[in-house]
Amino acid sequence: MKAIVCEEFAPVEQLQYKDVPDPVVKKGHVVVDVKACGVNFPDGLLVQGLYQMKPPFPFIPGNEVAGVISEVGEGVPYLKVGMRVIAMVMLGGYAEKVLCPATHIMPIPDEIPDEEAAALVTAHATAHHALKQRAQIKPGETLLVTGAAGGTGLAAVQIGKEMGATVIAVCSTQEKLDMAKENGADILINYTETDLKTAIKEVTDGKGVDVVYECVGGDTFHACSRSMAWNGRLLVVGFAGGTIPEFPVNLALVKGYSVMGVFWGSFTQHQPKEFADNMKELLMWYVQGKVKVVVDDVVPLENAKDALNKVMNREVKGKMTLRP
């Protein structure tokens, strides 16, 4: 089969599109013929050696795919060859086939196209977990989303709105803000045209924000950390801006708010029941039209480097998807 292979930690341009052995089915697993694979910011960090996980070489990146089961291993009576599924894998998604534990397989409703199903898992599941289990956001609270036109940002806007929050979208251009508004944002802030801290104070009447979904880092994080409401929750989701900020802990003390890490991958391992319940709720919301996947582009698998660079450069509105 063809796959994108990382032979060493290096710039994205050094990834190789090459032939590799097909995965061999084993007990408790299935083989999925990949129809579409989601592209995520951590994928680009991973292949450069900048992510918290550092797998042995060679490896195939990619952790969310949609496809059709082609082989079923022993001990998996409830999955059948030919089923359309979402497969959640730690590695291996950027390929024509992938081996996946049966516990991380989920049938796809007919209403969800492959390219949207492949892009639903990481972004929406991360935002869902962040707002539900971590922040425990309540109807009527304010939710500020940074990078609100990216894949996980748009997901947080949609899910926050569904959970009853007043959503404040923070983006770098009017075009991105317009997209956030189309997805449910109530208040729009262009941080390139105004001081973010001042703008947050104005739109919250000086109260500050109850929940911040922060996935940019750097100066954006610092502005948010100084704009929290009493009993607020500052969610640390990622650092798409490239700078991991240092946090003055006295701010949490004085302002009485919590700083919460959000690592969806670990959540799926530590809380599998809650993870399964979350996915059922997400799929139900999708079918009901309460959330949707905005796919910026679908590109051939061999052009994965171009897709990754677009994601890493924050040029994507919504999600990028690869198609073998």
TrEMBL record:
Entries under PROSITE patterns matching the protein: QOR_ZETA_CRYSTAL
Keyword field contains Oxidoreductase: yes
EC numbers, comma separated: 1.6.5.5
SUPFAM superfamilies per record: GroES-like, NAD(P)-binding Rossmann-fold domains
Domain of life: Bacteria
A single MF term (Gene Ontology): quinone reductase (NADPH) activity
All copies of domain Enoyl reductase (ER), residue ranges: 10-322
Keywords: Oxidoreductase
Gene3D superfamilies: Medium-chain alcohol dehydrogenases, catalytic domain, NAD(P)-binding Rossmann-like Domain
Name of the molecule in the record: NADPH2:quinone reductase
Organism: Paraglaciecola arctica BSs20135
Gene behind the chain: qor
